[in-house]
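Deliverable D2.4 — example input (structure tokens):
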């Protein structure tokens, strides 16, 4: 089955991300071939995504309502090795009535795109355990975030 085309802006381009986190690839993250394994890569994405939600003011999550991840899609494009560091860019990709899609790109120390993740997070009433529409001010804020593009980015020194 052919993979679907990437959206625009191209998520493999670091300039498409306004928010960045840098992470160290740990010894424990590698497999027998010294590649970071898929569980470790998903953990790196998760850590960066929580920081991203914090920068947007959505984390720490309130007690009554907030976003809850309901879907994750990962495209593995290149290899991540130990020892090393990675940078993960994050942005709002799409906003719906009750959900938001975050796009993230994981880049190696030379600036090459190694993996992409998109996550769908529903806006949820935690007490009722049901999704609900975004409050209008939050929806407008997230829609404004969709237009943001990259900050100056450079690969870490090798």
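Example output (designed residues):
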């Amino acid at each position: 089955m052919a993979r679907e085309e990437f959206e625009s802006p191209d998520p493999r381009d670091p300039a498409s991300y306004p928010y960045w986190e840098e992470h160290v690839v740990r010894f424990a993250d590698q497999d027998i071939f010294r590649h970071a394994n898929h569980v470790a890569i998903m953990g790196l994405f998760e850590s960066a995504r929580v920081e991203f939600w914090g920068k947007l003011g959505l984390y720490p999550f309130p007690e009554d309502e907030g976003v809850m991840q309901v879907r994750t899609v990962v495209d593995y494009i290149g290899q991540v090795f130990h020892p090393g560091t990675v940078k993960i860019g994050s942005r709002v990709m799409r906003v719906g009535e009750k959900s938001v899609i975050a796009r993230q790109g994981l880049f190696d120390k030379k600036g090459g795109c190694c993996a992409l993740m998109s996550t769908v997070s529903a806006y949820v009433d935690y007490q009722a355990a049901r999704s609900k529409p975004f409050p209008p001010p939050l929806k407008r804020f997230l829609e404004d975030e969709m237009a943001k593009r990259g900050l100056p980015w450079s690969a870490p020194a090798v």
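The domain at 14-146 is CATH 3.10.129.10 (Thiol Ester Dehydrase; Chain A).
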